[in-house]
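Letters spell out the chain; backbone shape is given numerically. Both lines appear below:
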Amino acid sequence: MLSIENLTKVYPTGDRALENVSLEIGGRETTAIIGPSGAGKSTLIRCINRLTEPTSGRIVLDGTDVTSLNKKELRKARLDMGMVFQEYNLVERLTVMENVLSGRLGEVNTWQAFRRQFPPDAVEHAYDTLETVGLAGFEDKRADELSGGQRQRVGIARAVVQEPKILLADEPTSSLDPETSRAVMELLTDIAEAENIPVLINIHEVDLAVEYADRIVGITDGEVSFEGEPDELVEEAEDRIYRSDSVSKTGRKGNDDEALDNLGTELREI
């Protein structure tokens, strides 16, 4: 169970990306986060695993307060949080199998990682997961030889191989064509069911959210403006989430500024 309690993010400029967001995510539920550009959707996902540092509030995963962990404890806790990135975040020169097994790097020492020596059960799980995501037989292909949809499947497989307690996906369909987007959404919901873990997806395509998610959370100006099942997302509720000029009127950050902040945080983590 993931509990988000009064989560707030204020950037050094004073811009408020999130304001007292509280949510609970559990079971094998697929939850889609929707909202206008710059509303704070990516910030919310990245605050959960502290790629972006929250300003205040608590994030508790199965009893562990993620917001209170030091760097060493956080690295361990991140093994419980699989992350699927918008831009895949693969090592292009490595093979599909090497990229997938990188999800288990936290379980081996530096020498084993350098020699790419992983436990037999991890390798077996990686092969099984590649079959699950439709990439059986691709294990020896380099990542830079794959299509966008195939790369995203590798990213999903890498996250699943971690055996996480929750799967986070930050705009996993934004770089994909409509047919591939539907395949990726179906894959993510199937994984939630098969692996018995919750999936939290930040997504722009409302129609995909309605079709595939069990629950929808609307974020507007950094606050929860809607929470309910897909069939409750009637026109009035959607208008409330996507109210016109909401971003420009608040003067909050757009996606580009938010991405730069996130990049800076990630570079400091390296």
About this structure: DSSP finds eleven helices and ten strands in the chain. The two ends are 28 Å apart (CA to CA).
